[in-house]
Amino acid sequence: MTQHLFILTGASRGMGLAMARQLLQPGNTLICMARHEQPALATASPAGAVLEQWTVDLSHAAQAAQQLQSWLGTQPADRYASATLINNAGVIPRIAPLSACTRAEDMADLATALRVGLEAPMLLTAAFLGATEGWSTSVRPVARKVLNISSGLGRRALASQAGYCAAKAGMDHFTRCVALDEAAKPHGAKVCSLAPGVIDTDMQVQLRGANPADFPDVQNFAALKTGGMLTSPAAAATRVLAWLQRADFGTNPVADVRDA
């Protein structure tokens, strides 16, 4: 067993793309799940690394989870020394009070944010854990991990972002539940919902460019940029992946990269 399997959602841009680049190492098999392929990843893949890019719409979470479950079912149980699922994908709906999100397109955006940010991680986690549960035995241990990329906004309310905050809060709590499930098993997986810090991504551009009448915190987000307080996607990816390799990963199922 020389290969380490990584399954990563939202790998086509931002911190997800940065993580994908860093995971493309000899000895790693990387499955990227995103709405679009990223040609730069294919050209950056070194010898000894295996890369697959699946074009999936995570707002259709059941279909994506079934695809993952079917693929895992084709893999020989002794192929991998470790298997890790990283639920990174997320989107924000319209930046406005919930009472203003009454148009059909607003409701569709809100539903998509909840499906991508909460439903998809839950269903993908179920598929991953169920399909790999038999991979690890006392004779042949396979380290299995689920890393959910959460947000401080799952733990702190923000006006005009009820959908995103609710998805991340739900991610935190379902991770706590899965941690209890897995702790009761002889070879259960380690799981963690990790807030990655404040990152300079397209989401930040949306937040600081919002209409102040709809988003009272717009100046606070603008100040993060002008004050140089945003972490680059590459630096954030490095910190997140370092957390994944910690010996105590999963001891605290809800964590923050800024924790000691």
Explain what the structure shows.
- By secondary structure, the chain is of the alpha/beta class.
- The chain has helices spanning 14-23, 39-44, 61-73, 104-132, 162-183, 202-208, 218-226, 233-244, and strands spanning 3-9, 28-34, 50-55, 80-87, 143-149, 190-195, 254-256.
- The chain contains eight helices and seven strands.
- Helix 4 packs parallel to helix 5.
Number of strands: 7
Which stretches are poorly predicted, pLDDT < 50 over at least 5 residues?
Answer: none
Order of SSEs? EHEHEHEHEHEHHHE
SS summary, helix count: 8
Mean pLDDT: 93
Percent of residues in β-strands = 15-25%
Using only C-alpha atoms, the radius of gyration works out to: 18 Å
What class would the helix/strand composition place it in?
A: alpha/beta
Characterize the biggest β-sheet: 7 strands, parallel
Q: What share of residues is helical? A: 40-55%
What shape does the CA trace take? globular
Terminal CA distance reads 33 Å
Strand arrangement in the largest pleated sheet = 3-2-1-4-5-6-7
Q: What's the SSE blueprint?
A:
Layout (H helix, E strand, L loop, with lengths): L2 E7 L4 H10 L4 E7 L4 H6 L5 E6 L5 H13 L6 E8 L16 H29 L10 E7 L12 H22 L6 E6 L6 H7 L9 H9 L6 H12 L9 E3 L4
Parallel strand pairs: 1-2, 1-4, 2-3, 4-5, 5-6, 6-7
Helix pairs in contact: 1-8, 3-4, 4-5
Primary descriptors:
single chain; 260 residues; 7-stranded parallel sheet
